[in-house]
Write a structure and sequence with these properties.
With 172 residues, this protein is of the alpha+beta class. It has two domains: 10-60, Winged helix-like DNA-binding domain superfamily/Winged helix DNA-binding domain (Arc Repressor Mutant, subunit A); 64-138, Alpha-Beta Plaits (2-Layer Sandwich), CATH 3.30.70. Helix content is 41%, strand content 17%. It contains six helices and four strands; from the N terminus they run H-H-H-E-H-E-E-H-E-H. It has helices at 12-23, 29-36, 40-50, 82-91, 116-126, 154-171; strands at residues 71-79, 95-100, 107-113, 131-138. A four-stranded antiparallel sheet has the order 2-3-1-4. A hairpin with a 6-residue loop joins strand 2 and strand 3 (107-113).
């Protein structure tokens, strides 16, 4: 039996703490405690408990455009040799994130570039790295980024969690 927590089994207090961390992982335990109305020691214990399971890492969101990387793309790629392409994707500095997907393409790449010339060179170079076909989609504007389970969306998550629990009770 899998003992890992699921959305429907995780404690409401843990969800509140995780939501606060999603909004700002640099805030103090005291701030999280105040916002969630959970004692500091419990906040600390619950974060430590989830550190190697639910919490993958603490990071920051960077404005790539302000760093001079004004071109952002989502690239769908179909690679002949998936393992070789994985190595390429993991090592390429312009690939921010890479995901294996299904259907016509087997990879989705989130890439950043300082200019269109570098982007074009990258796309042309994909073929040399085992990509048989690709589609480039230029990101015009970020509408919503990394906001699932943030404190700002916590009420919706609490409602969804409550609905899931009610359904589970009804089916049992």
């Amino acid at each position: 039996m899998d003992a890992r927590p699921t959305f429907s089994t995780i404690k409401e207090s843990d969800l509140k703490i995780l939501s606060e961390l999603r909004d700002n992982s640099r805030q103090t335990l005291a701030e999280i405690s105040r916002k969630t109305r959970i004692s500091i020691s419990t906040v600390y214990d619950r974060i430590k408990f989830h550190e190697n399971d639910l919490i993958k890492r603490n990071t920051c969101m960077i404005d790539f455009q302000k760093l001079g990387y004004g071109i952002r793309t989502s690239i769908l790629a179909s690679a002949n040799e998936k393992d070789e392409f994985r190595k390429f994707a993991k090592g390429h500095p312009n690939i921010n994130s890479a995901f294996e997907i299904d259907n016509d393409f087997n990879f989705l790449l989130d890439c950043v570039f300082p200019n269109m010339s570098d982007c074009r060179d990258f796309v042309e170079n994909l073929e040399k790295n085992g990509v048989e076909k690709s589609q480039v989609h230029y990101i015009i504007d970020e509408v919503k980024v990394e906001s699932f389970m943030s404190a700002k969306s916590e009420n919706k998550i609490s409602e969804t969690k409550k609905e899931e629990r009610e359904k589970a009770v009804q089916t049992n």
